[in-house]
């Protein structure tokens, strides 16, 4: 019988909706590129430049496949509608689809927990241990903790220095959240953030209101004055009909509540919405009996008689289900999986944070429990995580795992790291980047000390996601041999220091003994993933990605902050590394503060800072679209691809999504930063055949920059609840079944598994599941 050693996690980490799970993902796939002789990853200087091949030497296998899968004139080999770098495309075309299935033994737990966790936690049936909800502890979660909302008071700060949980009303000490409390008409109504404190009116017209965090506004919270009731006593119907006034700074900030006055309880946001085997409880899944895991997707021996999770695949060998309910011994189930990927949950690490709407998640729910997608920039972490958990590329068998995915969700942590008392560390230099580094390091400490998998490869088969603006620049030195998933592939060959203009994210001052001296991105081993983009039903219905060239009347388009020369522009010269400012100085199509247009402005070139509701339409009306950085990565690459526009990348030494695996020559243009003045001349110099070829590739592969799999998981959940399908669900469900961001990620991992030199020793002990022609060990 296979025994997967696990242990209760002693360290707290931030996670989605207040919980972080360290998932160890097993995928029978891997790829590690090698550095070219030159460190100039983007080749010799030219107006249009593309990265050289930075992948490992796979000449033996590649030579066997070259005759069957020759490269085209752009140096690409097509696989499933996308142009890949030649040796990768050949391997995927010849080997990926030919991998055979393999039997995997899954251990299904049967260890019960003390007191069934008292209804205050989830039982891990593999360990027989409870994962208690925030505010509770003990073997059976029987102990109630006291979590203060406020830091210690002082004469200057009556309720303590400001933090996100600062409370001038009633503190719920099991959650460190602020409510109206006993004695008010609505005791469960939140009094979040500025609601409980005096407002400082602006000194001059147009300036914003400020909050006086030193002075509680008890009158406007608790008063029963009939002309202007305190927030805690306002009847919603009276306020909506304008019968009474109330403090405008108060609103419904906590997730799971709806309406101006939080009068309606709605679904909270949880990972995979608990997979139908539990209910979302303030960001945590409270699993039904017999299920566990961060999303209640792991069965126990007691639940198998009633349900078999789809991600586990159909078992080929299972004990008699009639006796499972009475067993106390772990069950071994043999399941058949496609040979190229598995995933394994190693440990759960949890910590509740004050969970405000729109933070850390890519969706919330309205008063009808309908999905509302958010524009959360960092939502890709959640989308990828949910796809992994619901995927057949996951296993409970760590010994069969090829990779271990560790989802420390920095998108959840950084947004609160400078104002949440249970996150802020005394050694953090007041840098959010340093704070995040410390949490990744604690995750490493736990994994390396308590599990056997890290040491067998020095962590090379572990995968970490750094979604923040500059990616893995602040990764602790201990984990740098692992694979990093980022949105920002800065190799530091040109931009050697922190590029953000926001001081709290700057990583330059992090001590070398913590960070080491690694670059932000190593194309030999790391991968840039697309950023999150919400499903836009109108854009999908109109098929903006498929709009032909004759309907694209704008030659070049860029819309975004252009710096201090323009109204509302970022004042820092270092913003966007000065690139947006250079572009606007040459081609600005709207007057700056001095009333001047760009030196080379043209009628068919749009470079503007003015926001527009027709942004997607304007992208889809353009042939070329600018992909420029912000405080690190921006979502312009995804915007371009999803609207069928050829990306024009202006950021030297920085990899874009999949750029070390896909053949960017086939669908994108690179312009050196110093060559910005010649940008439009270069674009006009491309012939019609080249332009049509690139547009055709963008049309074929745009879904690889879109997290359709995660969106469809939510569509399926909503279809089970409602007879009428939402427009976004209708349109996404009608999309062709092309490979999306998650499918591309799996394909890259599969290639890496069989072509990464360090992995060859491990493959000797496993079934290759591939034809001999495809393995470097054959």
Automatic annotation (TrEMBL):
Membrane topology field: Single-pass type II membrane protein
Keywords: Disulfide bond, EGF-like domain, Glycosyltransferase, Golgi apparatus, Membrane, Signal-anchor, Transferase, Transmembrane, Transmembrane helix
Transmembrane segments: 12-35
PANTHER family: EXOSTOSIN HEPARAN SULFATE GLYCOSYLTRANSFERASE -RELATED, FAMILY PROTEIN, PUTATIVE, EXPRESSED-RELATED
One cellular component (GO) term of this entry: Golgi membrane
UniProt-annotated location(s): Golgi apparatus membrane
Record-annotated EGF-like domain positions: 109-142
Family: Belongs to the glycosyltransferase 47 family.
Disulphide bonds in the chain: 113-123, 132-141
Gene Ontology MF annotations: glycosyltransferase activity
Record carries keyword Thylakoid: no
Protein name, entry field: EGF-like domain-containing protein
Organism from which the protein derives: Miscanthus lutarioriparius
